[in-house]
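Query structure, 565 tokens:
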């Protein structure tokens, strides 16, 4: 009986659990359906907003067309530019709508109505893109050669802006074709027209690039003949900028051509010759093969036509450089001999600088003469070096400050090689100096390089500049010691040092009555080289002699008194 009751209870519990689970599943399924329905509604609203935006943009374009029909002059050109930009915005809006529909289909959300709208939008986009490209091509007019450099730059700036918009319209067109393929439509005819347009765009860009490169070459020749003509220089800068901008635009076109499977080898060769860059990350063997073949043929022609003369110029160049190198060695020896016998006392640092300048000057003159003998025009080269020197000088102002400080140090000679100095926060022996920095070897054998402007802008202490130095010593004795005896002992110790000079005379005086001792000053004079040996010898002798004579050297003491409260 009990077993049957238990079975009934278990069965009832199982049925209850199943009912609860089915209720929860139903509630969850209802919630998912509601969420899905809400999401679909939101997506529909998004589509409708996108379509409304397209219609608004179309109305703006119609308004601009009406205004252009009644305008003239500069206002008309400005409105036409605005119309082109408005059409591009419309293209992008249509593309964005179709792209969103395609992404939703990829996510498994399909809607026949929106699919049809997207296909219609892409069809209109292709036609509108062609119209935009045609309008842009009509507005591109090259400037007259008689215009000034500034007028040419302004005209080309507008042209390059139009070309960038044209390239962008092609990019939009290419993506629209990819979306049409997604919607399983045949785009063979549209792709054929696109290829023709891209090919025409690449050919026109190639011709313009070739013309601009020829202009650069011609203007460079003009600048070499008339280097002071500011207008020619300005036109040269404009032409160089044209080459860069045209190469950038052609690069964009070649990337699009690669994306639709077109051959771009010949254009890449021209682009590589103009800028040294390829349009894609893929190593294209054919491009380099053709270039190397062309370079090889050109080099072989040059060697056949002017090989002997070129070889003779190279040999002559190295002979002239070698001769002037030997002359620089000879000039260095003569300069060293002359400075050694000269009655003008120059510092070693200045002597080294003069010798280096003489040697390097002769070598530079030799190189310039050698270059002129092999047919290189030195005028533009020297002018270019002057401009480069100005730019480098402006960029290296701190280095020039060090250079000026180095010149002042060489002129006023506050120290020389092997002098012991304290300068720029560093103490040590000067081991070397250039016009930019000074190398100091510290007493513990560390090499420190200090900028010259830091040395010249600070206090310079030359310890070894004078031939003699005074040693300053202080010795304390007890108050109970014999003062006269102490003075006599100190005098005997100083007299026993052979390095101590007779003149100036040594000073030994009782200097002060200190807290714990009677202090004597001892100030002998020695040659600078004998300073430290004599210093240490006197201190050692004083300690030994004081101990022998019973003279105490006191040290500070303190008495502590404790008072009971």
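Result returned for the query:
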């Amino acid at each position: 009986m009990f077993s049957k009751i238990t079975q009934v209870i278990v069965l009832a519990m199982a049925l209850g659990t199943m009912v609860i689970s089915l209720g929860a599943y139903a509630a969850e399924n209802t919630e998912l359906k509601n969420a899905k329905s809400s999401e679909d509604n939101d997506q529909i609203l998004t589509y409708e907003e996108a379509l409304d935006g397209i219609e608004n943009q179309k109305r703006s374009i119609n308004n601009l067309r009406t205004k252009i029909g009644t305008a003239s002059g500069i206002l008309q050109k400005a409105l036409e530019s605005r119309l082109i930009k408005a059409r591009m915005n419309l293209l992008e809006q249509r593309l964005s709508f179709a792209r969103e529909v395609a992404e939703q289909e990829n996510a498994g959300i399909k809607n026949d109505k929106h699919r049809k709208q997207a296909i219609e939008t892409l069809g209109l986009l292709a036609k509108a893109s062609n119209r935009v490209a045609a309008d842009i091509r009509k507005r591109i007019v090259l400037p007259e050669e008689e215009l000034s450099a500034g007028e040419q730059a302004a005209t080309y700036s507008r042209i390059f802006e139009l070309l960038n918009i044209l390239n962008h319209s092609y990019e939009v067109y290419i993506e629209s074709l990819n979306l049409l393929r997604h919607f399983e439509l045949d785009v063979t005819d549209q792709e054929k027209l696109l290829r023709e347009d891209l090919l025409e765009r690449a050919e026109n860009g190639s011709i313009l690039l070739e013309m601009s490169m020829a202009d650069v070459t011609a203007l460079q020749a003009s600048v070499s003949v008339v280097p002071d003509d500011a207008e020619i220089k300005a036109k040269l800068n404009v032409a160089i900028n044209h080459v860069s901008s045209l190469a950038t635009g052609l690069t964009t076109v070649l990337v699009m051509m690669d994306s639709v499977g077109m051959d771009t080898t010949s254009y890449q060769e021209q682009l590589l010759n103009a800028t040294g860059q390829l349009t894609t990350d893929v190593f294209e063997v054919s491009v380099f093969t053709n270039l190397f073949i062309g370079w090889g043929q050109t080099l072989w022609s040059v060697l056949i036509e002017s090989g002997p003369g070129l070889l003779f110029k190279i040999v002559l160049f190295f002979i002239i450089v070698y001769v002037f190198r030997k002359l620089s060695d000879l000039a260095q020896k003569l300069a060293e001999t002359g400075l050694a016998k000269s009655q003008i006392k120059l510092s070693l640092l200045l002597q080294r600088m003069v010798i280096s300048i003489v040697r390097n000057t002769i070598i530079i003159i030799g190189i310039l003469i050698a270059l002129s003998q092999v047919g290189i025009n030195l005028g533009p080269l020297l002018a270019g070096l002057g401009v480069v020197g100005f730019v480098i000088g402006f960029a290296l102002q701190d280095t020039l400050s060090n250079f000026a400080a180095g010149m002042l140090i060489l002129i006023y000679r506050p120290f020389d090689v092997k002098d012991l100095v304290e300068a720029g926060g560093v103490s040590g022996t000067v081991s070397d100096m250039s016009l930019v920095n000074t190398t100091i070897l510290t007493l513990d054998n560390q090499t420190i390089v200090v900028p010259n402007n830091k040395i010249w802008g600070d206090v310079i202490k030359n310890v070894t500049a004078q031939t003699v130095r005074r040693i300053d010593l202080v010795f304390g004795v007890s108050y109970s010691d014999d003062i006269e005896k102490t003075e006599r002992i100190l005098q005997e110790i100083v007299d026993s040092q052979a390095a101590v000079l007779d003149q100036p005379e040594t000073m030994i005086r009782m200097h002060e009555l200190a807290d714990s001792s009677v202090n004597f000053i001892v100030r002998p004079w020695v040659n600078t080289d004998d300073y430290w040996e004599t210093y240490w010898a006197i201190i050692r002798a004083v300690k030994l002699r004081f101990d022998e004579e019973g003279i105490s050297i006191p040290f500070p003491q303190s008495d502590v008194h404790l008072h009971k409260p």
